[in-house]
Amino acid sequence: MSSYWTMEIAELVTRILNKIDYDFTILEDESCCGYIEFWSGEIETAKELAENLANKIQAAGITTIFTACPGCYSTLKYDYPKLNINLAPKILHISELFAQLLNEGKLKFTTPLNSVITYHDPCHLGRFHGIFDAPRQIIRSLPNTKFVEMDFNREHSNCCGGPMRTAFLEYAQKIGRLRAQEANATGAEFVTTICPQCVISLRQSAQDYDFIVTDLVVLIAKALGIEEADDYL
Question: What is the pLDDT of residue 166?
Fold first, then answer.
């Protein structure tokens, strides 16, 4: 998702990790994990994609995988075993990696954001897999920010409507507008999340409001003084 839909996120993740001299690599021929096919019931196609990616990962000798997409995270970690594909590397969502680096003192924010922020829990990250604290820890560590929760948050967070947009657009738009109203009620300048699909959906739903929808990765990059982050705000 980040490599093809929200390419600025893939770019900024790379800039962030390069800035702190974190040792990582990117697959030269990165391919889809098969998430969409798996969830749409095209199991044979999903398995073909999964086996292809698993072979590339094994050949590269990778020990840890991190991804900026909750859908990819969920697929690699929890759905692949259902296809009898068990990846050896440890699998992390990017928020888990950044929280870990923050705790280790390797992620040091220097640029104040001077803003009010609210956070939307992606369904695949939050309700599906219980990753609520890592993104919030990062947000609270951003310099000169005030964090305000929406009325419905964590396991009670409402969906952005994103996954429904291809098949049930009218329902997706209603769901998205509801979430945009909840975000607007917080008075936040930035509505952030850490999922490419949620970013796209929330932006489409928030056209009548003044707040800025952005991936948390962009705010992290800005707080680290990475100038390119301003291009995406």
Answer: 66
Over the stretch 156-189, which tens digit does the pLDDT of each residue have? 998 888 777 667 778 888 888 999 999 999 999 9
Fold category of 108-232 in CATH: Rossmann fold (3.40.50)
Domain boundaries, the chain: 7-100, 108-232
**If you write DSSP's letter for every residue of the chain in order, what string do you get?**
-TTTT-HHHHHHHHHHHHHTT------TT-----HHHHHTT-HHHHHHHHHHHHHHHHHHT-SEEEES-HHHHHIIIIIGGGGT----SEEEEHHHHHHHHHHTT-----S---EEEEE---TTTTTTT---HHHHHHHHHSTTEEE---SS-GGGPPP-SGGGTTT-HHHHHHHHHHHHHHHHHTT-SEEEES-HHHHHHHHHH-TTS-PEEEEHHHHHHHHTT-GGGGGG-
